[in-house]
Structure formats: structure tokens, C-alpha cells
């Protein structure tokens, strides 16, 4: 048996996982990386501030599932907007235009990509944080766009598409 391809179990307690400040806004706490899952998926918790909006985008080669742990988001999926509160879920199949807006303070979501092929984009559009670093900083969509161009995994289609003020 080729042991180089044998995956190890992953156990991370609440709050455990590499923390990264994402230049699109928010702190990612990585629960499972692409390498740890053999490319099957990647999973991170996203700690978000009220008012964050993402540009309209697609993930051409992965499905994105978001599970809201606390707070609320409005998810724009293929032209339709839906409020999703704690315990709710939204899935954007690969290639489907989508975006989200955070409508409550202290919102936390789990973000799952299957397969885990988008990690290079997220990694290049973020910086590592220490355990005590709250992870604040300016949103830098230029860096996010450059990471998308360099790494793939995401195609940015345009500005945030929200037509209503959802706050």
C-alpha cells in the first residue's frame, strides 16, 4: 500500500485551526485543508462583521456550501436573494453566480468547498494571524482580484449585486 496517499484523521476543537485575515473581510479559521483531505474538500469558519459584502462571483470547479453558525447573511444565488439565519444553509453549485452580505454583528459561517481546489485563492488573499490577533484591517479587493487571477478557483463577475438594504 502506498502510505503517501493515506489520509490522517482530523480533530480540531472549537477555536482550533490556522487563523488568517482575509482581505475581502473576516477571519478564517481553517478546520480542514485541501492537503489534509486529499483534495476532497476544504472547510473553514469565517468570522464576519456586519455589512461585509462579497462581489458577484462563481467557483467554476467547486460547489460552495455555507452553514450559518451565528448571526445572519443574505445570500444572492443566481439572481434570487434569501435571508439565512443561524442553523441555515446555502449551497452554490459550481459555476452558479452568487454573493453574500452580512446583516448581523458577530456572524459566523462554515464554508465548505467540494472539491477543495480553491484553497490557493483563499491562502493568497489572506495573511496568517496569531492566536490573540483580532484580525482587522482594510478590505483590499485589489488583492482578492489578483489572487483570483493568479490562482483560479474563483471568477469575479462584478460588484456586489444586492438591490435592497438588508440591514
> What order do the helices and strands follow?
EEEEEEEEEEHEHE
General shape: globular
- CATH-scheme architecture: Sandwich
The gyration radius over C-alpha positions equals 15 Å
Mean pLDDT across every amino acid position: 91
Supply the CATH superfamily name: Jelly Rolls
Q: Would you state the CATH class?
A: Mainly Beta
Strand portion? 35-45%
The domain count comes to 1
Count of helical regions: 2
According to DSSP, the number of beta strands is: 12
Order of strands in the sheet with the most strands?
A: 8-5-10-3-2-1-11
Helix content: 10-25%
Give the class from helix and strand content and strand pairing: mainly beta
Main beta sheet strand tally, sense and closure: 7 strands, antiparallel
Cα distance spanning the termini: 55 Å
Describe the structure.
This protein has helices spanning 119-124, 141-151, and strands spanning 19-22, 27-32, 42-48, 56-58, 63-70, 72-77, 80-85, 89-92, 98-102, 107-114, 126-128, 155-158. The protein is mainly β. It has a single domain, classed as Jelly Rolls (Sandwich). The chain has a seven-stranded antiparallel β-sheet with strand order 8-5-10-3-2-1-11. A three-stranded antiparallel β-sheet has the order 7-6-9, with no helix packed on it. The protein has a two-stranded antiparallel ribbon with strand order 4-12.
Amino acid at each position: 500500500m502506498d502510505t503517501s496517499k493515506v489520509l490522517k484523521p482530523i480533530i480540531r476543537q472549537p477555536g482550533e485551526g490556522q487563523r488568517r485575515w482575509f482581505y475581502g473581510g473576516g477571519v478564517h479559521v481553517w478546520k480542514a485543508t485541501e492537503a489534509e483531505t486529499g483534495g476532497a474538500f476544504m472547510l473553514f469558519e469565517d468570522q464576519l462583521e456586519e455589512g461585509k459584502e462579497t462581489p458577484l462571483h462563481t467557483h467554476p470547479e467547486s460547489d460552495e456550501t455555507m452553514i450559518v453558525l451565528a448571526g445572519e447573511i443574505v445570500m444572492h444565488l443566481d439572481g434570487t436573494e434569501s435571508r439565512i439565519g443561524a442553523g441555515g444553509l446555502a449551497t452554490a453549485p459550481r459555476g452558479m453566480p452568487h454573493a453574500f452580505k452580512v446583516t448581523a454583528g458577530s456572524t459566523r459561517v462554515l464554508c465548505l468547498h467540494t472539491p477543495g481546489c480553491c484553497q490557493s485563492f483563499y491562502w493568497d488573499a489572506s495573511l496568517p494571524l496569531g492566536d490573540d490577533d483580532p484580525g482587522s484591517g482594510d478590505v483590499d479587493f485589489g488583492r482578492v482580484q489578483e489572487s483570483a487571477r493568479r490562482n483560479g478557483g474563483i471568477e469575479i463577475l462584478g460588484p456586489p449585486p444586492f438591490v435592497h438594504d438588508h440591514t
